[in-house]
Structures are given as C-alpha cells and as structure tokens.
Amino acid sequence: MQENLREPLKRRTLGDRLNRLKPTALQSASVVAGLAMLAGGVWLYFHDVPFAGEPVVAMKIRPLEKISTASTPKKTDDQNVVDKDIPPEPDPADLAADRAAAGKQRFAVIQRAGRMIVRPLRRAPVSAVSERGPFGTLPKIAKNGRKPFDVYSSKLSKAVLRSAKPKIALVIGGMGINVELTNQAIRELPGQVTFAFAPYGRNLQGMINKARQRGHEVVLHLPMEPFGYPGINPGPRTLLASAEPLENLKNLKWLMSRFTGYSGVTNYMGGKFTSDGGALLPVFSQLKSRGLVFFDDSSNGETLIKSIARAANLPSRAADITINGDQAFSAIQQTLLDLENIARKKGLAIATGTGLANTIDAVETWSRDLEERGFLLVPLSLAYKGAKT
Asked: How far apart are CA 238 and CA 364, in angstroms?
C-alpha cells in the first residue's frame, strides 16, 4: 500500500478498470455452484419424483417355492427328492366334509350302549303343544295327549334309562339375563346340562333355541314371593302369597308367555309363597293341566311343595345339593365331588346352581372325564321318566 502511495496519480484506462473487476477463482466456483443448485430446483419443481425426500431401502426377494398340491402334475424323481417333505394341500371339499362330520359328532350324536350322547332338540314352539294366550304363546296338552314335557324333553334310549351307572343331573339357573354368561354356558357346558331361564331379558326365544340346538333342556324360572318382599323382589309379576288366586294365575300366564320350549318350571326364590298351600295349589293345578313338571331348587328349606304337588298330581323333584357360585373354583369342585358321592348312594343325584362364571368354569372342567370315572351326566327330564305326567 505504501508503494501505491508513492505512485503518481494518473487517469486509469478502461482496460485497467476491467482487470480490477475480474472475479477470483473462489468467486467463480461459488457462482457456478449457485447456478447449478438453482437449475436443479427449477427441474425438480417441474418434474414428479415419487420417492423424493423419502427413505428408500433396497432388498433382495427370493423367488417363491412351489408347493405340491393335489392338482399339481406329478414330478420326476429328482423333483420329488426336493419336495418330498412338503405335505399336499388338502382339498376344500374334504375340509368341508371334515368340519361337517366334526359338528355332527359333537352335537348331533346317537345314544348307544348306555352312554349318554347329546342330540339337538326340536326348535320351539311346536304348534301341537302351543296355544295363543292373552299375553303370548302358552304350553298346552296336544289333542293326541302329548304334553310339552314329552315334546320338549330329550329322547333317552332304554339303554341309558336302564344303565346301572350312577347318574347326575345339573340345572343351571339365572339364564337369559346376562347375555354374555348365557352364551358362554351354552357354548361350553355339555348338552346334558339343563338350563333354567328367567322370564326377563331380550331375545329369550333366540337364546333358548340356540341352547336347545346344543342339546340343552330348558325349564322356566317362576318368580315367587320370598320372605322380606318387596325389599327382596324377584322381579315383575312375582307370584304373591297374599294375592287373589285369579291374580296369580293371570301373572302366571304372563310369565309362561315370555318364551316357549320349556318342559317344566322351577321356583325362583319363593320362601313365603311355597309355604302357603292356598296360594300354591291353584298354580300347581294350572301347571299340571298344561302338561308340565315342577322342579324344586331346594333353596327355601322346608316348604309345602312336595305335599301340594302330590295333591295336584303334579310330577315334582327336588335338588339334592346347591352349587354356590360365589365360592372359589376349588370349593365348587369339592361340591361336585360331594354330588358324585350322593349319586353313588342314590343312583341319581340332582344339583342346581346359578350361571356365574365360576360355576360355568368349574362344571366344564369337572365334566370332561365324568363318564370315564363311571358316571352319566343326564338331563333333568330323566328324573321324571316313568312318573305319571
């Protein structure tokens, strides 16, 4: 710079000015790079690049191996060496036949050699044993004398009836109110188990026909006045000891019209009602005239059920033991073992319980090898076979 100060001042020529404006190599490179980026951006704007900005992974895909099927042409010996361990694909027609056979084997079975085997029951209602009532369909005795008990009960072979094996009947009640537990019981419990359906709930007839399709007999839960009513209330249209007989019969017809397909009825609560002969006799007479039977769940202790049923000529049976569904799984299992001991002594034992999850699980587990242990699980109707109905 000092040298430049010593130089005399003079006018610069045009060539000198142009030389001073000449860019350096770094400046030139920067300009070229900027122009390239701008051109690239313009090109991308006007062209569609589907994976621009997205990660791309490249991988090698192996060719699919050929699987030998029933329709595949036969291979040479060399090919069979490669594919000999690959099983042939099953024919869809064979699979359908296998599924149908399995379904028949499980649900639509025959009875043979004293072994109780389940078959689907008739879809309800059956017109011959049905009539139109003031609130819906009611059971009735057919013109040929056939009763709802006969039509809606399981058909048992003579071999089963005469078998010397101890027999056990189970009645699981409270069905139809909790749909999930009802469906679980229908799905998981053996078809010989009898279900007691409450006259309340939605789609009762659909659930009952589903249960009967699986072989389950059905009885109707009749709500009866307990001690402590109305603080303890079984439900609408409860049969009351203090009500006029005509009022109870009217409510009875309403309760009996909630669904069809039941062969008998059972009490729901009813400690007070079943201790009053004057209230009980008209109801039992009505059940008898409609070709039904009565099952006492034995929850009320000493009652007049047995004597009034005899007076009305109504077939009646009572439970020997009650399964407490509030107990632990192991406790319910012990109750079922006690039931086996009763069956050994009496030849036939009847138990009742409520369709709670613990009860369903315990009964399903207990029943798996029951026949192998020398017992027959039977529907409730067997307890009435041979009785005058």
From this structure: 32
**Strands 218-224, 293-296: parallel, antiparallel or unpaired by DSSP?**
unpaired
Cβ pair 156, 146 in contact under 8 A: no
Instruction: Report the alpha-carbon distance of residue 116 to residue 161 in Å, rounded.
Output: 10
Cβ atoms of 241 and 272 closer than 8 Å: yes
Note the pLDDT of residue 367.
96
* Cα dihedral 183/184/188/190 (nearest 10): -60
Residue 5 has pLDDT above 60, yes or no: no
Domain boundaries, the chain: 122-384
CATH T-level fold of 122-384: TIM Barrel (3.20.20)
pLDDT band at 149 (very low <50, low <70, confident <90, very high): very high
pLDDT at 181 over 70: yes
Amino acid residing at 318: A
What's the CA gap between 180 and 27, in Å, rounded?
A: 81
Place of tokens 């001690």: 227
Residue 203: partners with Cβ closer than 8 Å, 6 or more residues away:
179
| pLDDT at position 349 | 97
Could you tell me which of 99, 151, 157 has the C-alpha nearest to residue 121? 151
Return mean pLDDT, the chain: 82
Cα angle, residue 349 at apex, residues 314 and 287 outer, rounded to 5°: 15
Which of the two residues, 30 and 275, has the higher pLDDT score? Answer: 275
CA distance 300 to 285: 21
The reported pTM is 0.71
